[in-house]
Every structure is written in structure tokens, then in C-alpha cells.
Known about the structure:
Elements (H helix, E strand, L loop, with lengths): L10 H8 L27 H4 L1 H6 L10 E7 L6 E7 L5 E4 L10 H10 L25 E2 L19 E2 L1
Antiparallel strand pairs: 1-2, 2-3, 4-5
The structure holds flavin-adenine dinucleotide.
Flavin-adenine dinucleotide (FAD) binds next to strand 1 and helix 4.
Amino acid sequence: xxxxxxxxxxxxxxxxxxxxxxxxxxxxxxxxxxxxxxxxxxxxxxxxxxxxxxxxxxxxxxxxxxxxxxxxxxxxxxxxxxxxxxxxxxxxxxxxxxxxxxxxxxxxxxxxxxxxxxxxxxxxxxxxxxxxxxxxxxxxxxxxxxxxxxxxxxxxxxxxxxxx
Length: 164
Ligand SMILES: Cc1cc2nc3c(=O)[nH]c(=O)nc-3n(C[C@H](O)[C@H](O)[C@H](O)COP(=O)(O)OP(=O)(O)OC[C@H]3O[C@@H](n4cnc5c(N)ncnc54)[C@H](O)[C@@H]3O)c2cc1C
């Protein structure tokens, strides 16, 4: 879906696949430095690339500009009954389904659960007061910069700047 290459993250595989004599792996001998492979999406704009598939899909109904405002539950907050939706122009409606998937992203998932607080008051699914806690970004520090000798200094990705 993301239009990447082979689903293979072995450095040796890619070294052979690109078959370029000017691109070789560094001869790390200590085992303290590891090669890793990243693959970049072109990127893919899902709305354009998959528009027809979404329109044709029997079981998918896409609603753009429809913001989930509240997760409604039964009285003991064990079952989701409907999602209340609002558009920026003020339309309000609800969506009912047998099953719901909460997929609004790392921050909004927590916010939506916490603001859905008719029952229980602490927020839906927040019985242990943990929803939204322990948010983690990618912590990183500039720990070193490595300048490789001329023969190895071909690729800016070989500049090791960050330590995770
Ligand atoms: C700057 C940046 C760079 C990243 N780079 C990488 C990378 O290189 N490789 C990698 O693997 N991951 C990367 N990530 C992480 C990756 O993007 C996320 O892990 C992934 O997109 C999460 O997917 P998701 O479907 O859970 O949520 P999202 O992709 O965030 O999708 C959530 C969707 O819900 C919609 N939404 C939000 N709130 C509501 C609401 N109330 N009602 C209705 N819809 C709503 C949003 O509009 C959005 O379309 C990056 C993230 C960021 C922010």
C-alpha cells in the first residue's frame, strides 16, 4: 500500500540487489555498529491512489470532514453504542455499528476516550487513569558525528548523527 520495495530489511540483500560497486557496506568488525535498512514511501496519497477502490468497496463508506466527537456507550460503559459525529459547518449525526475501531492517531485516540466521559466520568476505558499517560515521542540526542574517509564518504545517510 505504501509502494515500498521488497519486504526485506537485510543489508546483504539490498547490497546485492542494487549491485553498485561504489556502494558497499562498511567493514564494521567490532559488532558494536549495525547496518539497518530503511525504506521510504514515495509518499503515497491514499485519497488519490485508493479513491476508486474505496468507492467500489461494498463494505466501506468513506465520510470526509466527519469528526468523531463522542463515543457513546451503554449505561455500564461496556459496549459502544454509537459515535457522535460533527462537521465543521455544524451538522450533527451518529454512526452505529456492530464493531468500532478507534484509529484517530496516537494523541486523538486518547483525547477522544477522555472526552467521552458521560459514563464513566474519568473517560471511556480510563478506569485506571492511564489513558493519555506515558506518551512517548522519538527521544534522541546528538551523540556523535562520524566523518568517514574519502572512499566511504559517498552517502549522507552514513553520517551517524543521532543515538536512539
Ligand atoms: C512527522 C511524522 C513522521 C513520521 N515518520 C514515520 C516514518 O518514517 N515511518 C513510520 O513507520 N512511521 C512514521 N510516523 C508514524 C506514523 O505516521 C504513525 O505511526 C501512523 O501514521 C499511525 O497511523 P494511524 O492510522 O494509527 O493514525 P494516523 O495516521 O494519525 O491517522 C489518524 C486519522 O484519523 C483522523 N482523525 C483524527 N481525529 C479524528 C476525529 N476526531 N474524527 C475523525 N477522524 C479523526 C486523522 O485526520 C487521520 O486521518 C511518523 C509520524 C509523524 C507525525
